[in-house]
Specification:
The protein is of the alpha/beta class and about 200 residues long. Helices cover about 50% and strands about 15% of the residues. The protein has helices spanning about 1-10, 20-35, 45-55, 85-90, 105-115, 135-150, 160-165, 170-190, 200-205, and strands at about 40-45, 65-70, 75-80, 95-100, 125, 150-155. Strands 4-3-2-1-5-6 form a six-stranded mixed sheet, with helices on both faces. Strand 5, helix 6 (about 135-150) and strand 6 (about 150-155) form a beta-alpha-beta unit. Helix 5 packs parallel to helix 6. The chain is elongated, with a radius of gyration of 20 Å.
């Protein structure tokens, strides 16, 4: 998948940060997993998937469990996604492996079976129960399937979010650059404002 990402970056798109930044983020999440005794973390929050891999979509189907599974020992990451979105993941996501399901039908069972096949269900598995996506029924189905296989499930809804609170140097630089762009845009708009102008007329300039 590295070749796909490199091609995307040469063309001016792909993940917004270097691979090393995402590896550092993964390392901090794994440290937090160790602190709370989680062996596998299933990340389903779109914002957290983006934080850990750089992958971003315009929308997420509520019935489709797009997810990144992280195994603590040895450290490894596995992306679950619809087969239709395989190229998007390959070009945008910094992740070790990708496996795809053909439809949201039985996608929950697909994830459970794959985790069990890899023995990633062993020990304690963290689920983001407060994730906005997928819907609660899908998360409950994954939980039930893992519990049936003997897994201890814990709520890890805020584990990645807490890690995100501390910004890296690369993130701080990006935030400063974004703020400058916003400042320049606001100053430009202010210099062109005239009485009677609408937001649409300003946006079109």
């Amino acid at each position: 998948m590295r070749n796909f990402r490199d091609t995307a970056r040469r063309e001016g798109w792909g993940p917004p940060f270097p691979d090393d930044e995402y590896k550092k983020r993964l390392g901090r999440v794994v440290e937090q997993m160790a602190n709370v005794g989680i062996d596998t973390l299933l990340v389903t929050s779109p914002a957290n998937i983006n934080y850990l891999t750089g992958y971003d979509m315009i929308w997420y189907y509520s019935r489709t469990p797009s997810a990144v599974a992280i195994r603590r020992e040895p450290i490894s990451s596995l992306f679950f996604e619809l087969a239709y979105h395989r190229p998007t993941v390959e070009y945008h996501a910094v992740v070790d492996e990708l496996t795809c399901f053909d439809s949201f039908h039985d996608a929950d069972k697909f994830i459970v079976d794959e985790l069990v096949r890899r023995s990633w269900h062993d020990g304690k598995v963290g689920i983001e129960f407060w994730s906005k996506n997928p819907n609660g029924q899908v998360l409950q189905s994954i939980t039930s399937g893992l519990e049936y296989s003997g897994t201890e499930i814990v709520d890890a809804s805020w584990l990645v979010d807490n890690v995100k609170l501390i910004k890296s140097a690369a993130e701080c630089q990006a935030m400063h650059e974004a703020a400058k762009i916003a400042d320049d845009a606001m100053l430009s708009v202010a210099s062109e404002l005239k009485s009677g102008m609408t937001e649409i007329s300003i946006a079109g300039r």
